Amino acid sequence: MKLNQIVPLLVLTTAAYAAPQSFDFKDPKGVNNAVFKLDAPLESINGSANGVTGTVSFDAENPAATTGKITVAATSLTVPNPMMNTHLHSDKWLDAEKFPEITFEAKSLANVKTEGNVTTADITGAFTLHGVTKEITAPVKLTYLKDKLSSRVPNLKGDLLVIRANFVINRGDFDVAKGQYEDKVSTTIDLSLSIAGAAVTK
Questions:
Q1: Do 176 and 199 form a contact (C-beta atoms < 8 A)?
Q2: What pLDDT sits at residue 1?
Q3: Whole-number Å distance between alpha carbons of 79 and 142
Q4: Predicted local distance difference test score (pLDDT) of residue 7
Q5: Residues 141-163: tens digit of each pLDDT
Q6: Which one of 3.40.50.300, 3.30.379.10, 2.60.200.40, 2.40.128.110 gives the CATH number of domain 20-200?
Q7: Is the pLDDT of residue 48 over 60?
Q8: pLDDT tens by residue, 74-95
Q9: Domain-by-domain residue ranges, the chain?
Q10: In the prediction, which pLDDT does 19 show?
Q11: What is the C-alpha to C-alpha distance for residues 176 and 131, in angstroms, rounded to an integer?
């Protein structure tokens, strides 16, 4: 092969290697989850949500360019007490029928640091709850696991992207029973996200 044939081939190979991958967060194992905690003076409430979907574009060579959108089904939010669970989905609180999705759409990453296959950063994006959208910034950790999809889902080949993030919101900012029941239901909500997305290869 001549030099003028090799150079274009190298350019194409490098471009293909550096291209961002699309990771699907609809987990076939059903273990992706978001955890929420409210710690009011009279009661502490802990719950979780497993209705997680979404797509994230991630480039292992340029993690700072990460973008994407994660969606949580409002009806998948649950707490241990059945009556409280019913109230949570009602129009007095989340109004899950009218506002079925809770979303976070990533816009930018700052303070990006990568060591090996782990990237930490401050991620800024649009968080939507109860029909209200606010910009928030939160610490995030991205772990890129090349060729590890089959270790999690044996019948699939590809890469994994694990996202872990923690942030705090004020329910009043999203018009969720603003100013009400503050002795039993905290105004601040601690959210923790731990999810894995797959980029399947054929």
A1: no
A2: 54
A3: 28
A4: 43
A5: 999 999 999 999 888 899 999 99
A6: 2.40.128.110
A7: yes
A8: 999 999 999 999 999 999 999 9
A9: 20-200
A10: 85
A11: 10
Q: Is 25 within 8 Å of 70 (Cβ atoms)?
A: yes
Both tokens of residue 18? 């550096």
**How does residue 55 score in pLDDT terms, banded at 50, 70 and 90?**
very high
pLDDT at 3: 47
How many residues make up the chain in this entry?
Answer: 202
Amino acid at 201: T
Long-range contacts of 156-160 (CB under 8 A, 24+ apart): 156/28, 156/198, 156/200, 157/200, 157/201, 157/202, 158/198, 158/199, 158/200, 158/201, 159/21, 159/23, 159/198, 159/199, 159/201, 160/23, 160/196, 160/197, 160/198, 160/199
> CA-based diameter of the chain, in Å?
77
Tokens of 152: 């999690």
> Contact, 118 vs 143, CB < 8 A?
yes
Q: 49 in helix, strand or coil?
A: strand
